[in-house]
Fold this sequence. Notes:
With about 325 residues, this protein is mainly alpha-helical.
Amino acid sequence: MNVSDAISLYLTHKRSLGHRFLTEENVLRAFRKAVSDRPMNGIEAADVLVFLNGKGGPVTEYWAKKYHVLSGFYRFALSRGLVTQSSLPRRIPLQTAPEFVPYIYSDDELRRLFAACAAACPGRCHLEGDVMRAVLILLYGAALRLGEALSLTIADVDLSESLLQVRETKFFKSRVVAMGRDLTGVMSDYLALRRNRHSTLEASPFFCCRDGGPIPRHMMQAAFRRARDFAGIDRDGGSRRQPRLHDLRHSGVVHRVVAWYRRGDNVQDLLPKLATYLGHVDLHGTQRYLTMTPDLLREASLRFEHYAMEAHHA
């Protein structure tokens, strides 16, 4: 059996089990392109290694991701008799590139980023600056994923109740997301502008391009990079380690937890609710978002010191 047919079988199998498998599909398509569509048994270990190593730079998280995807693929192929042996390398090199750490935007950087949206979307751009600004504020304020925000329709946004209906997300689950007063106000202002430009049919995209159509993910990402440059937001480590659009979600989560600490809230009790709000299946996914910024470390230390003092005097 050829590589493309084996990949199709594997994807069908995984999706029948309820997995979305979009990132994995992209990895497998890239693998098929790298080794060409030839018989599975004709792929040598050297061919797989060339795909894993890419351009021969440091071993990154993406190297490990590709290896993990191919491991599952080859286990499936072996169990179905599609290959007689795995072509994966037996020795896995240590990751030499530092692990990516999400960027947590400061309040000042957020203001500069939102203000730069107009410059990032000039008149010739299919994406309007005020639309982009509304998307970025929602990503931060409601801690949404980009795909979730761009998939919203008019019917999904209930401003009278300050609620968003987020449908068929990363884990095939839908959820209701509450918005605060300020965020609801920003979305109300945006919708008032939108009504003057485009259709307000319930099935229409809530965020749309100048022509009224949905905003492609790549368009938003390119505009974000321009806005980030205009705002002067960067960090050391080269182009691959620059602040990302997805880091707005990380920032929203971290800032919310810091606020809980400062108010004296019971953070441990609130974390499961935060996991549900974010659409995570368990707390493990949420914990990855809690990057230890100086503010978060300081507030957590103050809380621990408070408890320690109470225990000492008990």
